[in-house]
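Quick one: structure tokens for this chain, please?
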Amino acid sequence: MVEHENDRELVELYLSRDESAVERTERRYGKRLMGLAKSFLSDMRDAEECVNDTYLKAWRSIPPQQPEDLFSYLARLCRCTAYNIIEKQQTAKRSAQLVELTHEMEECIPDMSRDASPDDKFISALINEFLDTLPHEKCDMFVKRYWYGESVEQIAKEMGFTKSKVKTALHRTREELRRFLDKKGVRP
């Protein structure tokens, strides 16, 4: 609850165009955003550029956006920025981790552009609905892998599982997601 109250204060600073909003955001979330950026980008300078671009995008998008969960909003901006950096640098040669994550999910979710569309919002809502049906542990594992881009090894270590258990659980969860989306009329 305290985190969301502090988020509201930060969002208010953005809304009032107070330049200290970026500095305070960096102090509060800088390490977490850098960790997220580094999970996608191998070069430290690219990760720093990604995080700085995330702050700039937040500054430019708040207002009109008024996120209730500021870190989730920033994390989404950071992920999209990391994807853009990878695409710019490696048009022919994709990041191995990004390819792996994409390959894992392509069996469940139809291929669409990264630009927001009504279909994206619909699928996003369905995925959130699906995640609400999962036990906490499976949901946590899924979000760590496919939202934060953590490696199987990292998840296993954090959660105290073997890599095999994590791989199996993620595979089964993707299968459950595929069946769930299929029932809702969404096919890969």
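Confidence is low (pLDDT under 50) at residues 112-118.
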